Amino acid sequence: MMDIDDFKIINDTYGHQTGDVVLREMASLLTDAAANGKGWAARIGGDEFILIFPSLSLEQAEPVLSALSRDIKEHLFYKGDSRFSINASMGIKEYHPGEMNAADFFDQVDMRMYAEKRRNKSGR
């Protein structure tokens, strides 16, 4: 699961049309990463997305996710003469059928994502 950090600031600073461009370009980056991992990506609401790699272990998915994180940080967005980049926080977990129900699994992934978001904001 992934959330764009400080997305409200993007909308407030550059406008909602630019925010929409960010969402579309983010979706493209995620779709490319999902294809590289033979998975799929979806927007699950607001500025949150999910990536599913059904045939990869966590260890196999980590290079795909590291490349995605790098691509997100290096991608430049433009508004008039301004250019900016973004960061995204990810919550990553491998699912094992029968280990827990889907709701508990997604709660844990969500908690991991917000823990990373807090680390990103604190600069750690």
Shape: globular
- The number of distinct structural domains comes to 1
Strand fraction band?
15-25%
What is the SS-derived class?
A: alpha+beta
Largest sheet: number of strands, sense, barrel closure: 4 strands, antiparallel
Can you count the helices? 4
| Low-confidence runs of at least 5 consecutive residues | none
Task: Give me the CATH architecture, please.
Answer: 2-Layer Sandwich
CATH superfamily assignment? Reverse transcriptase/Diguanylate cyclase domain
Distance between the termini: 20 Å
Instruction: Look up the CATH topology.
Output: Alpha-Beta Plaits
Q: What topology emerges from the helices and strands here?
A:
Layout: E1 2-4, H1 7-14, H2 16-36, E2 40-45, E3 48-52, H3 58-74, E4 77-79, E5 82-84, E6 88-90, H4 102-122
Antiparallel strand pairs: 1-3, 1-6, 2-3, 4-5
Q: TL;DR?
A:
By secondary structure, the protein is an alpha+beta fold. The protein is built from 4 helices and 6 strands; from the N terminus they run E-H-H-E-E-H-E-E-E-H. The protein has one domain: 2-Layer Sandwich (Alpha-Beta Plaits).
Can you walk through the features of this model?
The protein is α+β, with helices and mostly antiparallel strands. It has a single domain, classed as 2-Layer Sandwich (Alpha-Beta Plaits), CATH 3.30.70.270. Helix content is 54%, strand content 19%. It is built from four helices and six strands. The protein has helices spanning 7-14, 16-36, 58-74, 102-122, and strands at 2-4, 40-45, 48-52, 77-79, 82-84, 88-90. The strands form two sheets. Strands 2-3-1-6 form a four-stranded antiparallel beta sheet. It has a two-stranded antiparallel ribbon with strand order 4-5. α2 (16-36) runs antiparallel to α3.
